[in-house]
Specification:
With about 240 residues, this protein is an alpha+beta fold. The protein contains seven helices and five strands, in the order H-H-H-E-H-E-E-H-H-E-E-H. Helix content is about 60%, strand content about 15%. It has a five-stranded mixed β-sheet, with helices on one face. Helix 1 runs antiparallel to helix 2 and helix 1 packs across helix 4. The radius of gyration is 22 Å and the shape is globular.
Length: about 240
C-alpha cells in the first residue's frame, strides 16, 4: 500500500507545479504580447496626432481604442493566471483580496467569514483559491448575482469553503452534464478530488447557487485505498 503522506506530498507538488506554470505563462504574456501591443498603441497614438487626414485620424484612434481594450483584457488574464496574493499571504487574506477585486469590478456585494485554527498547506490554499475564483466567475458571468456569501472554516480534520450567491441559479443539467462542456464545474470537483477532498455544487433556477468544498489537512487513506485498487494506478 502506498504511503498516504508521500502520496499527498506528490499531489501537492503537482498543484504547486501547476501554479508555477501559470506564473510562467503570465510573465510570457507580459513580456511578449503586452509589450508588443503597448508599442503598437503608442505608434497609433502618434499617427492619430500627426495625420492631417480626418478619416485616417479617426480610424487610428478607433484602432488604438481596440488595442487598449485588448491590453486590459490581457492584464486581467495575467491577474487570473498569477494572482498577486496567491503564495504571499495566508488563505483568509488571499480569499478576501480575491473577493475585493472581483466583486468591486462587477459591482457585487459580499460577506466573508473565516474561522480556521491554522493556515492550510500552500497547495490547499491554492486549490481553495482556484475553486473560489471559478465560483465567483460563474456568479457574475452566468448567475448574474448581486451578492455572495463566502465562509472558510475548520471541519472534520480538514478545511471547508462555501460560496453562496443570490443569482438566477444553476439548471440541474449543468450540474450533471459535465461532458457537455461545463469544464468549470468539472475543474472545481477535480481540484478538490486531487487532494482527497470533495466539491459539491447545488442550485436551482431562481434560487441561487452554492459551491461547497472540503480538503483534508492530512493525507486521506481512503483515497489511497481506492487508487491502489484501480488497475490503472501505477503505485
Amino acid at each position: 500500500m502506498p504511503d498516504p503522506a508521500a502520496h499527498r506530498r506528490f499531489l501537492e507538488t503537482i498543484v504547486e507545479a501547476q501554479e508555477q506554470e501559470r506564473r510562467r505563462i503570465a510573465l510570457e504574456i507580459h513580456d511578449d504580447a503586452v509589450q508588443v501591443m503597448a508599442a503598437s498603441l503608442m505608434r497609433l497614438e502618434v499617427l492619430a496626432s500627426r495625420t492631417a487626414d480626418g478619416g485616417c485620424r479617426a480610424t487610428a484612434r478607433e484602432v488604438a481604442g481596440d488595442v487598449r481594450r485588448a491590453i486590459e483584457r490581457l492584464r486581467r488574464l495575467m491577474t487570473q493566471l498569477r494572482p498577486p496574493e496567491l503564495g504571499t499571504v495566508d488563505a483568509p487574506t488571499a480569499l478576501r483580496k480575491l473577493l475585493d477585486r472581483v466583486c468591486s469590478e462587477h459591482e457585487i456585494e459580499y460577506a466573508f467569514r473565516a474561522r480556521i485554527s491554522e493556515d492550510p498547506a500552500p497547495a490547499t490554499t491554492s486549490t481553495l483559491y482556484r475553486i473560489a475564483q471559478e465560483a465567483l466567475t460563474n456568479a457574475w458571468k452566468h448567475s448574474r448575482a448581486t451578492r455572495v456569501e463566502v465562509e472558510l472554516h475548520d471541519r472534520e480534520e480538514g478545511i471547508a469553503l462555501s460560496i453562496q450567491d443570490d443569482g438566477v441559479g444553476c439548471p440541474i443539467e449543468v450540474l450533471d452534464l459535465e461532458s457537455a462542456g461545463h469544464f468549470g464545474i468539472a475543474g472545481m470537483r477535480e481540484r478538490a478530488d486531487a487532494l482527497g477532498g470533495w466539491c459539491w455544487i447545488d442550485g436551482a433556477p431562481g434560487q441561487g447557487t452554492t459551491v461547497s468544498c472540503w480538503i483534508p489537512r492530512e493525507p486521506d487513506t481512503l483515497v489511497i485505498d481506492v487508487l491502489e485498487a484501480d488497475p490503472a494506478y501505477g503505485g
